[in-house]
Amino acid sequence: MLLRLNRELSGGAILGAICFLSLTGVHGQTGSVPKPSPSPKPARRKPVAPVVQVSPTPSATPASRVTVTVRKVVPPAGAFGSGTLLCILQSPFINESSGIAAGRRNPGVFWTHNDSGDGAYLYAFNRSGRTVGVFMARSAFAGDWEDIASGPGADGKGNYLYVGDIGDYGRTRSESCVYRIPEPLLSAENRIGTKARPRLTDEPTARLLYQYPDGPHDSEALLVHPQTGTIYLITKEEKGDAGVYKFPPVKATDNQLAPYTLEKIGALAFNENGLHPFPNRVTGGDIAPDGKRLVLRTYYAAYEWRLPDGEKVFDAVWATTPAMVPLPLQPQGEGICYSPDGTSLVISSEKTPTAIYELKAR
User: Fold this and answer.
1) How many CA atoms lie within 13 A of 35 on its CB side?
2) Would you state the torsion angle of the CA atoms of residues 213, 216, 218, 219, taken in this order, to the nearest 10 degrees?
3) Whole-angstrom distance between the N-terminal and C-terminal Cα of the chain?
């Protein structure tokens, strides 16, 4: 959002040549994460891969805690390529693409939405950038929509779009919400809808109110597990650690009045200083369709975590060290998702023209 970007500009870029990352878990082990970022014309440095040093630290709780320090070195070959232009979005109404998700019901279709200032519109586009559907989310309000994810319902069944009304730059919202919306099925009949005459999504729309256990936070990253429907939020911090928060189990049908209280399961400490004018800010994320990988992005780069072989508990992924994925330069890159088969990363950016890039696995 322009207002937010202007405020962040006032902080200036802090110089620094070393990138440190630590992930401290609250309940169980924790892992680490390094990060870089993209933006208008910052001087980019060579991408680097992490070397990890793990050292246990004392804890006041019975749960073990691990601090992971990452320092930059010359990188090995990355897991993904450098990225190529997939398409330019043709709709003039998508001018602040703040999140992106691959459709589960509609092969070859991606969903996006604008940041605050637009209505509760969901835009579907194909790999050519052509708009193939415009929908208004029924019974939803677009306060500060920041990210979108696709996933099953709370029972692990069905196909839904999760839209995060999770932005809170001023940290004044005592409650925020995530909308769980049935993903529209696009067909020859309903591949219609315009900004002036959008189609309505099906009922029911679940409004999942939530609050943080430690006061309001700004967030731009919403992740939903593709098998269980578990919801995660990563906070966006200008200073300090980015928190990793998890929803408790939610009901299959829910429009509760009392908010869920999230559980903090970790913290990501980034230092991308000197690599980008707005370092260390998590702006999007996704979990791979296989449920064994996740990706977070900043303005500068992306980071992918992989669940250890044989590990059944997904939250153990946060105890691993991520691989850094350099991203193409974008005006204000915020959206990221996996392709339906999990072999590519697809990224979007605010500002127009909206260029969509794809990074294919090597």
Assistant:
1) 31
2) 30
3) 33
- 279 compared with 83, residue with greater pLDDT: 83
Asked if residue 327 lies in contact with residue 302, where contact means CB atoms within 8 angstroms, the answer is yes
Domain 2-360 belongs to what architecture?
Answer: 5 Propeller (2.115)
Annotated domain spans of the chain: 2-360
Quick one: which of 30, 22, 32 has its CA closest to 61? 30
Closest by Cα among 14, 100, 19 to 321 = 19
pLDDT value, residue 70: 37
For the chain, percent helix, then strand, then coil, each to nearest 5? 5, 40, 55
Which helix (H) or strand (E) segment holds residue 56: the answer is strand 49-57
pLDDT at 275: 79
Of 322, 271, 276, 269, residue with least CA distance to 299: 276
Residue 210, pLDDT score: 97
Q: Three-class SS of residue 3?
A: helix
Report field, pTM of the whole predicted structure over 0.85: no
CA atoms lying within 13 Å on the CB side of residue 208: 28
pLDDT in tens, 147-168: 999 999 988 999 999 999 999 9
Share of the chain above pLDDT 70, in %: 76
Peptide bond into 204 cis (omega under 30): yes
**φ and ψ of 317, to 5 deg:** -60, -30
Of the two residues 49 and 171, the one the predictor is more confident about is 171
Phi/psi for 9 (5° steps) reads -60, -35
